Amino acid sequence: MIIYIGSKNPTKIKAVENIFSEFEVKAVEAASNVSPQPFTDQETLIGAVNRAKECAAKAEGVIGIGLEGGVMKLGEKMLLCNWGALVDETGEVYVASGARIPLPREITEQLEAGKELGEVMDLFTKKTNVRKHEGAIGIFTKGYVGREAMFTHVMELLRGQYEFNKKV
Ligand SMILES: O=P(O)(O)OP(=O)(O)OP(=O)(O)OC[C@H]1O[C@@H](n2cnc3c(O)ncnc32)[C@H](O)[C@@H]1O
Ligand SMILES: [Mg+2]
């Protein structure tokens, strides 16, 4: 079985490899077809599904994975939100979301002003490519849960549902 992951972000590739370690994992570009900075749960979920479907269409009999990051409003707070989708060899779609934590006010203000979280996090931490390393979730949890770990949990939820349905 070949697994296609629709991203070149190393945190996403590693999360897929961690959970499908016995299979060949191929990283390819896949369009989310949502805004670069999704602002709702719904938009983030759709982005993940779009990427997974594009991946599953790359070849016969493969599994496609989409992992998408965004933010969502909950009352006065803005939360990190992440979604994953797995499209299996028959076209069945499985979805799962990642852990959520609220973002500090100074971050949400910049997102509301139209900036992308990736850029805001690099400015905030004075680092480069936070999104390819610990991610915002890693920064605001002092490294307890990084982006790879969060996406790895999403992958467990996806593989588990797939196997339950297949009665593996
Ligand atoms: O190459 P792709 O797969 O697109 O990976 P990405 O890092 O851009 O990640 P997403 O498109 O899934 O995330 C959507 C936006 O949110 C940002 N983002 C999401 N989660 C983040 C995190 O934990 N840390 C920093 N930026 C994050 C990201 O930079 C984008 O601007
Ligand atoms: Mg992106």
Q: Report the sheet with the most strands, covering strand number, pairing sense and barrel closure.
A: 5 strands, mixed
Total beta-strand segments? 5
Oligomer class? single chain
* Form type: globular
Rg estimate, integer Å: 16 Å
CATH topology: Maf protein
How is this fold's topology laid out?
Blueprint: E1 2-5, H1 10-19, E2 24-27, H2 41-56, E3 63-74, E4 77-87, E5 93-97, H3 105-112, H4 117-125, H5 135-139, H6 147-166
Parallel strand pairs: 1-2, 1-3
Antiparallel strand pairs: 3-4, 4-5
Helix pairs in contact: 1-6
Bound molecules: inosine 5'-triphosphate and magnesium ion (MG).
Inosine 5'-triphosphate (ITT) binds next to strand 3, helix 4 and helix 5.
List the main descriptive attributes of the protein structure presented here.
Maf protein; 5 strands; alpha/beta; inosine/xanthosine triphosphatase; binds magnesium ion; nucleotide-binding; EC 3.6.1.73; 6 helices; 168 residues; NTPase/PRRC1; five-stranded mixed sheet; binds inosine 5'-triphosphate; metal ion binding; single chain
Could you explain how this protein is built, in words?
With 168 residues, this protein is of the alpha/beta class. It has one domain (2-166): Maf protein, CATH 3.90.950.10. The chain has six helices and five strands; from the N terminus they run βαβαβββαααα. It has helices spanning 10-19, 41-56, 105-112, 117-125, 135-139, 147-166, and strands at residues 2-5, 24-27, 63-74, 77-87, 93-97. Helix 1 (10-19) links the parallel strand 1 and strand 2 (24-27). Helix 1 packs parallel to helix 6. It binds inosine 5'-triphosphate and magnesium ion. Inosine 5'-triphosphate (ITT) binds next to strand 3, helix 4 and helix 5.
